[in-house]
Each structure stands twice: as C-alpha cells, then as structure tokens.
UniProtKB/TrEMBL annotation:
It comes from the Bacteria. Residues 1-14 have a biased composition (Polar residues). Residues 1-24 are annotated as: Disordered. GO terms for molecular function: ATP hydrolysis activity. Pfam families: AAA_22. InterPro entries: AAA_22, P-loop_NTPase. Residues 58-190 form the ORC1/DEAH AAA+ ATPase domain. This is ORC1/DEAH AAA+ ATPase domain-containing protein. The lineage of its organism: Bacteria, Bacillati, Bacillota, Bacilli, Bacillales.
Length: 336
C-alpha cells in the first residue's frame, strides 16, 4: 500500500478544487454506475458471438450477487456499438408466480419492453400486440433481429418456454430472428437436465444449446480490472476529468500516484484471509456486489467527504469489507 504522506503533503491546496457535487448525489453514494469487469468482458464476447451466429438462444448462469443483472445492463449499452445503434435489445425481469398465466406473461413482457399499452385486453390480444411491436422494432433496424434478455430466468415454467417459442416462430415466419438469452441462477442447469430427461428437445434447441458460466472475482487480476475502472473509466460530473478515485482522494491521486488498481493484490489477500478467519472453505469467488460495496465504503468513509485521509491502508480495507456484509453472505452461502 502507499505510505501515509507528511502533513504538508496532505494539504488540499496541492490539488485543484474538486467540482461541486451535491451531498448524496455522487454515483459512489447512489450506487448508480456501471464499470466493466473481466467477467463482463468475457460475457460480452460470448453473447456477441451468439448474436453474430443468429443463435436462437443461450443461457448464462451463476450464483446470486455476482453482477449478472448489471452485466445485462452493460451489454445493452455496448452491443449497439458493434451491431448498430438501432439493434433492438430488451430485458424482461421474471416475476415470481405460483402458477403461470399467459395473460400475465405477455403483460410482463409488454411492460418490460416499453410498450405503451401493456395491460389492455386478453392474452391473445397481448400476444399479438407484442408480436407486432417486435416486428416494428426489428424492421426499423437493418438486421431484422430482436435480442431479448430474460433476467431471473430460473423462475420460468415449462409452459412459458412454449409461449416464447410461439413468438420466436411467428417472428421467424416474418423473416425476423430472435435471440433469447436466459440469465439466472444455477438452477437453470438443473432445469435443462430435467428437459433433457423429459425429451423436451424443442426447448433445449431454442434456448439452451449454448451456455456460459458467469463467475465472480477469482484472483487479483480480476480485481485489478474492476478497481482500475474507478481510477480511469469512471467520471463524475460528466466531462469533468474527475474519476471516482480522484474525487474522493484528490491529493493522493494527483500527487502521489495513488490508484485503487494498485491495491488489488493486497485487497484480494484481505478478502481471502477474512474467509479463513471465519472458517469459509469454498474456493474464493467474490460477488461483484460485495466488491463494489467495499469500495464505496472505503471511498465514503475514508475519502474527502469522510475522514479525509490521503489514502487507504489494510485495516481500512478490512473495515470496509466487514461493513459490506460479505462475510455474513458467504457464511450463508456455504451453509446452503
């Protein structure tokens, strides 16, 4: 870690004035920001290949809190840069129902894709409305395709896959290809096994031929990529030149080369040692949620808006991890 500077080096006069940001509105305080990770980049490359091949679908699975939902958001922003600004990309969030309803299913889809009239009419009218909406969006793009992410897809019932196939087939008859990307927990793999045993080849062939196992942070290199985003890619206010790291540690950033990326090895070791201290025996796979909470804790509590330290030491990182709830979550994960 970077050594603490002398008192004179800690003077805020050494750095230009920080831009004004109203209290509680910085992205570190709101949690509203997206940064790429190694895993998101790998997921992007995989999904881009599926889209290039016009695959009907694939599934992405992993344990909770790894950042899969944020990865969907990131891909939704970035894929149009490769496939064209008019590429229709939609995300449906699966709700928890005791019994599937065709009307509710198409109502949820219409609502999530942004249709102006998601709730009117019976199931057949909602289905037709969704079909026409997808046709309109696809024809406005030069590629005549639809990309549909389904988040929390482990909640889908078998009959709902049938309704998805109906939409897929109707679009295919209209010359439009649809790629459905199921994103969910590890139960997706078990569901596919059940479909294989039940000889439901039509479901597997449409939506489950391809798979990607989404992982958390497994080593210091993964962590360094995540942390470098706070140093280099992030910026707030927009076009200000102030990354998140610089905003909260301006003197250390500007004059002593302090970067979160350089903390990666030490921070990963602290996570690993804390696991050992609490008897956690599974291989280290840090969910992105708890890394971001750790970084946010460190920046808020020890940066310019908190204790106003010039930089972070290992004890402060350890405190930030503890405050994130990581150990409690991992203890529960090992039990189940």
């Amino acid at each position: 870690m970077v050594n603490q500077p002398s008192p004179i080096e800690n003077s805020s006069a050494l750095s230009p004035p920080r831009p004004y940001v109203a209290q509680g509105t910085h992205p570190i305080e709101t949690g509203r920001y997206l940064l790429p990770t190694n895993e998101i980049i790998r997921m992007y490359d995989t999904v881009a290949q599926w889209i290039t091949n016009r695959s009907p679908g694939g599934m992405i699975y992993g344990r909770p809190r790894l950042g899969k939902s944020r990865a969907i958001t990131y891909l939704s922003y970035e894929l149009p840069n490769e496939f064209g600004n008019h590429l229709p990309i939609f995300t449906m969030k699966c709700r928890q129902y005791k019994q599937p309803s065709e009307s509710s299913f198409f109502e949820d889809l219409l609502n999530d894709v942004g249709h102006a009239l998601p709730f009117n009419g019976k199931a057949n009218l909602k289905r037709d409305r969704l079909y026409r909406y997808f046709v309109e969006k696809a024809e406005r793009s030069a590629q005549k395709r639809i990309i549909l992410f389904i988040d929390d897809a482990q909640r889908l019932f078998e009959i709902q896959y049938g309704w998805l196939m109906d939409i897929y087939n109707e679009l295919d008859s209209a010359g439009i290809s649809m790629t459905v990307i199921l994103v969910g927990q590890e139960e997706l793999v078990h569901q596919r096994s059940a479909f294989i045993q039940a000889k439901k080849a039509q479901i597997i062939g449409r939506f489950m031929v391809h798979e990607y196992n989404f992982k958390g942070i497994v080593d210091a290199d993964d962590m360094a990529v995540c942390l470098s985003g706070y140093d280099n890619i992030s910026e707030y206010p927009e076009n200000s030149g102030w990354s998140f790291t610089r905003y909260f540690f301006p003197d250390g950033f500007d004059h002593n080369g302090c970067r979160l990326e350089n903390c990666a090895k030490d921070l990963f070791s602290i996570f690993t040692n804390l696991r050992k201290e609490h008897g956690l025996t599974r291989a280290t796979e840090i969910p992105m949620q708890y890394l971001t909470l750790t970084v946010e804790n460190a920046l808020r509590h020890f940066g310019a808006n908190g204790e106003d330290l010039q930089w972070l030491n290992n004890e402060q990182w350890k405190s930030s991890i503890t405050g994130s709830g990581y150990i409690e979550a991992e203890t529960y994960h090992e039990v189940v």
